Amino acid sequence: MKIARFSRIGFILAAAGSAVGLGNIWKFPYITGENGGGAFVFVYLITVLMIGFTLMIAEMLIGYVGRRDSVSNFEELAPRHKNLWKYGGFMSIAGLIIMTFYSPVIGWTFHFVLLSLGSLPASVEVAKEHFTTLLSLDIGTQIFYHTLVFLFVTTVVARGIKGGIEKLNFFLMPVLIVTMGSMFVYATTLSGFTQSWDFMFGVDWSKLTSASLVTAVGHAFFTLSLGMATILTYSASLPKDSNLVRSSLIVIALDTGIALVAGLTLFTFLYEYGASPSAGPGLVFISLPAVFSEMGVAGHFFAFTFFVALASAGLTSAVSLVEPFIQYLVDRFKFSRLKASVASGLFFYIFGIVAILSTSKEYGEILTFGSKNFFDWADFITASVMLPIGGLIMAIFVGHVMQEERVASVLKRDLGFFYPYWYFSLRYIVPIALFVVVLNLVGVLNL
Ligand code: TRP
């Protein structure tokens, strides 16, 4: 079967589009705020460089050498115990689980795009009330936007890698970069910018707890789209003779750059108008709209720009979350693309509705298990459990299971002098770091 491959630039845009998502613009600023700023940012940056970079190359390699869906690639590249290793590829299911909460959040951004054209909440109290009402009472609005996201994402992925995903990224990535870039330039002219800079880069170790350490590592995975076969699946459609190292570096630079720019911009706006950076998940949906409202007419413009950027970032990541499973259905079960896209879409659509209901007043209680509701469980199980385990499997697979000649034949040229360091880090440093994270989790869970 002939599949249309990415162009070189198309791959980089799509991989960067996957990496840059709600994680960068929504999650990164608020977890930085909650975890005290500088020291947390520092740990996150180190993790991205030491673990993220090493692992991104490894994940790309599995796709690039294997050229098929994640399950087939693991099966084919394992020299023995193929039947066992193929289960490594099933991590792609994590993408659909992530989508059950990711899609409703993209839905919120749609809602706020519209809101920014009308009336913005006049104060933090009003904004809080608005957001709480949306979550706890306004099930209909949420399901409406979630349905739009489902239809949009399914249509794009049904058109395939080249005609759907690559096109979407060609269009939305420039929108995202221009909107975030111009807001950042404006932020640098405000007096809150110095405070924001100090908060993000002033390292105060006393603020770092072991919980924030684990959060930082977990986020490094989430933001780089590692550990669940997104990057693997995209790189199965890379043109021959691609340079995996250069691609990884560009994707990481864009992802990290946009996260830092988003953080600096948001905190500048918040400081400028006397709001606190540690507002939690409501940061961009509560504090920020209130700040925009205080800016007057310009605020509407900024709000519109910001939420369009956030929606764009979300959508380019969303397609990458469903694509791995679609590829699997198409490759292994000979599903047509349309059928595979609809099947995967319906999965996250239906469970997404469950996630929406689980935050509501009416159904919240029956959809809460232990300490978390369905929505939070989906987030926790994927970002904190499945992704680190997925990353651990990939590191062990490329570092200890695949024959070294196969690894070296692709990467020795591109990594050059760094090759032995990379290989060592993949074999020992990354697995140990991930193992510690996973163990810590077990401790957190009190198992
Ligand atoms: N990286 C995206 C973000 O920051 C989310 C995402 C897309 C993702 N694909 C992924 C996370 C694969 C983990 C694995 O929002």
> Looking at the structure, what is the overall shape?
globular
The residue-averaged pLDDT reads 92
**Which compounds are bound in this model?**
tryptophan
In CATH terms, what is the fold-level topology?
Answer: Hydantoin permease
**SSE pattern, N- to C-terminal:** HHHHHHHHHHHHHHHHEEHHH
**How much of the residues is beta strand, in percent?**
under 5%
- Residue stretches low in confidence (pLDDT < 50, at least 5 long) are none
Biggest sheet layout: 2 strands, antiparallel
Q: How would you classify the helix and strand content by structural class?
A: mainly alpha
CATH architecture: Orthogonal Bundle
Number of helices: 19
Q: Please write the CATH class name.
A: Mainly Alpha
**How many structurally independent domains?**
1
How many β-strand stretches? 2
For the terminal residues, how far apart are their CA atoms? 47 Å
Account of the protein in words:
- This protein has 447 residues and is mainly α.
- The chain has one domain (8-441): Hydantoin permease, CATH 1.10.4160.
- It is 78% helix and 1% strand.
- It is built from 19 helices and two strands.
- The chain has helices at 8-19, 22-34, 38-66, 70-77, 82-85, 93-117, 124-136, 139-158, 160-188, 192-201, 210-223, 230-235, 244-272, 283-294, 297-333, 337-358, 374-401, 404-415, 419-445, and strands at 368-369, 372-373.
- Strands 1-2 form a two-stranded antiparallel ribbon.
- Strand 1 and strand 2 (372-373) form a beta hairpin.
- The radius of gyration is 21 Å and the shape is globular.
- The termini are far apart.
- Residues 18-19, 21-24, 95, 222-223, 225, 227-228, 230, 317, 320-321, 387 line the site of tryptophan (TRP).
